[in-house]
Amino acid sequence: MKFFKYHALGNDYLVIDPKDCPAPPTAAQIKVICHRNFGVGSDGILLGPLPSDQARFALRIFNPDGSEAEKSGNGLRIFSRYLWDRQLVQDEEFAIQTPGGVVKSRVLDGGKTVRVEMGQVSFWSDKIPVAGPRREVINEKITVGGRTFSFCAATIGNPHCVILLPEISAGLAKQYGPLLETHPNFPKRTNVQFLKVLDRENIQIEIWERGAGNTLASGSSSSAAAAVARKLGLCAPSITVRMPGGKLAIEISSDFDILMTGPVTKVAEGTIAAEMFTIAV
Questions:
Q1: Is 197 within 8 Å of 234 (Cβ atoms)?
Q2: Which residues of 145-228 form beta strands (DSSP E)?
Q3: What is the pLDDT of residues 60-96, one digit of tens each?
Q4: Total domain count for the chain?
């Protein structure tokens, strides 16, 4: 099984072409492949390109715990760079179908930068989803681990819980992220962002990704957090999102359509040995 490894601001994925594997990897195989000690090590697996009747390419996204994600901003940038490296695309705009919707992408700067039209953010509970009556989920209370937070929820094809605080840290994300991810409010679990607004054009986030844990960067998390900051009137339409792994540029339209621009770096390519799967993790 051949793989190509890339990272987007330290958020790393393996791209596997379906032609190089007889069947999609099982949840058990994904856990081993993504394991930092017993496998290749990654924050997820991108399986594609797949055929699509809605776009030029289709993509499936798997988390390190074996679950499947609807959408990943960094994953989409990485997959776009992979398509460019394989000379399946050039400098034109192209569409990618994900379970979380169709996006449009373009590779820039000789492959070093990718711009993705991520789609429209919604704050409506039935779309995210969030339990309870239909409403926009803005500044609601949630209690986990003996602490009560005010949160906003959003979807850009996958669910997000955004918590605005005056100070944030990786420790905060690691302590409360897993509790929020699995809270009964979120029927499909949720990604979690701890958000600090620096000024009208800059925000900082710490991330707990559903199925992956604490990560250095996330494109969909950046999109959701920036949209929440904009929704609350705290930021301008053009926002730089600062994360432990680096910065992403987010542009928000009046309808909350998101344009994300950021870097991608190729790391390695190789072959996964069958022997690796003899060890369960």
A1: yes
A2: 147-155, 159-164, 191-199, 202-209, 213-215
A3: 999 999 999 999 999 999 999 999 999 999 999 999 9
A4: 2
| Cβ contact 218:231 at 8 Å | no
Q: pLDDT, tens digit, for every residue of 151-198?
A: 999 999 999 999 999 999 999 999 999 999 999 999 999 999 999 999
Q: Is the separation of the CB atoms in 210 and 182 below 8 Å?
A: no
DSSP string across 48-101: EEE--SSSSEEEEEE-TTS-EES--HHHHHHHHHHHHHTTS--SS-EEEEETTE
Same-domain status, 147 and 225? yes
The gap from C-alpha 59 to its chain's centroid, in whole angstroms, comes to 13
Residue 268: CATH number of its domain: 3.10.310.10
Q: Are residues 107 and 145 in the same domain?
A: no
Whether residue 187 sits in one domain with residue 145: yes
Q: What is the pLDDT of residues 98-135, one digit of tens each?
A: 999 999 999 999 999 999 999 999 999 999 999 999 99
* Phi, psi of 238, deg, nearest 5: -105, 120
Please return the burial class of 158, using the count of CB atoms within 10 Å of its CB with bins 0-12, 13-18 and 19+: buried
Beta bridge partners of 247: 242
Question: Is there a domain that residue 124 lies in?
Answer: no
- DSSP classification of residue 111: G
| pTM for this prediction | 0.95
Residue type present at position 46: L
Q: Dihedrals φ, ψ of 277, to 5°?
A: -80, 0
Tell whether 273 and 246 lie within a shared domain: no
